[in-house]
Design goal:
Layout lengths: L1 E8 L2 E6 L2 E7 L4 H10 L5 E5 H5 L6 H8 L6 E4 L5 H10 L4 E4 L1 H5 L1 H10 L5 E9 L5 E5 L4 E6 H9 L5 E6 L11 H10 L4 E5 L5 H10 L3 E4 L1 H4 L5 H10 L1
Parallel strand pairs: 1-4, 1-12, 4-5, 5-6, 6-7, 7-10, 10-11, 11-12
Antiparallel strand pairs: 1-2, 2-3, 7-8, 8-9
Helix pairs in contact: 8-9, 9-11
Length: 246
């Protein structure tokens, strides 16, 4: 599935270059304009990230999420600053069919995240594993809106959650995100082969319809598209046709 991404800072639609808040690109229209555009072009799911919340959980854009919840979006996945059961319940109260994206809390509050897999339907939880490669080509996880390096490796996280119902993982190569450099096909081919039971979402660097074909051939189940859609490299409709044709 093709999933358009709407990233938000202070109520505005933005894209960050390689996750850097000081390299921020703002877009002209309000979030609901882009959401409606996505839906008109055939999007079946919208990916929304509250970057204010990701950077500081005390600054989540709750009012904006409440406004978004009023729209009849077929399916939505939401991330950014989700750190507690209270945060999760708020989102599910606003948008019962939502999937929540957990990032930093995976590292900082591992035991509670394990409990949430038992408390909620595991299919409603997506683990966001945002990585940079070190000199040994290990996939190091970054947290807090990609501001901080953790001491955890991608595979270690997957192994910890496999036996408690993990099904959905969003993996972003931070070095590619917002760059138009193309996705890291080798990364996705590798992890899909290693963990065939996981539904992987690919994110970062997509700029052409050929990138979509390459990613589908890697075996990922979903592709997150942000800047390419916002800057009219192609439409969601064209991306969907490309995905279905292949």
């Amino acid at each position: 599935m093709i999933i358009p991404a709407i990233d938000l800072i202070k109520g505005e639609v933005v894209r960050l270059h390689q996750g850097k808040f000081n390299l921020k690109r703002k877009y002209l229209y309000e979030p609901l304009f882009y959401i409606q555009k996505c839906l008109k072009e055939g999007a079946k799911k919208i990916h929304i990230v509250d970057l204010d919340g990701a950077k500081n959980p005390n600054k989540k854009q709750i009012n904006l999420l409440k406004e978004i919840s009023k729209y009849q979006i077929p399916s939505i996945q939401i991330g950014g600053g989700i750190r507690s059961q209270k945060d999760i319940d708020l989102i599910f109260d606003l948008i019962p069919n939502a999937q929540i994206i957990l990032g930093s809390s995976i590292i900082k509050d591992f035991k509670n995240v394990q409990k949430w897999f038992n408390l909620y339907n595991p299919h409603s939880i997506i683990l966001a594993l945002d990585i940079k490669f070190n000199k040994n080509y290990e996939k190091i996880i970054f947290i807090n809106g990609w501001q901080n390096k953790s001491n955890m490796i991608f595979e270690d996280i997957i192994e910890k959650f496999l036996n408690i119902g993990l099904k959905y993982v969003l993996c972003t190569d931070i070095s590619r995100d917002g760059t138009f450099l193309g996705p890291n096909i080798n990364l996705y081919t590798e992890i899909v082969k290693k963990y065939p039971e996981i539904f992987f979402q690919a994110s970062g660097g997509i700029s052409t319809l050929q990138d979509i074909l390459n990613l589908k051939n890697s075996g990922v189940k979903n592709i997150i598209i942000g800047r390419a859609f916002l800057e009219k490299k192609f439409t969601i409709k064209e991306a969907n046709l490309c995905w279905q044709k292949e």
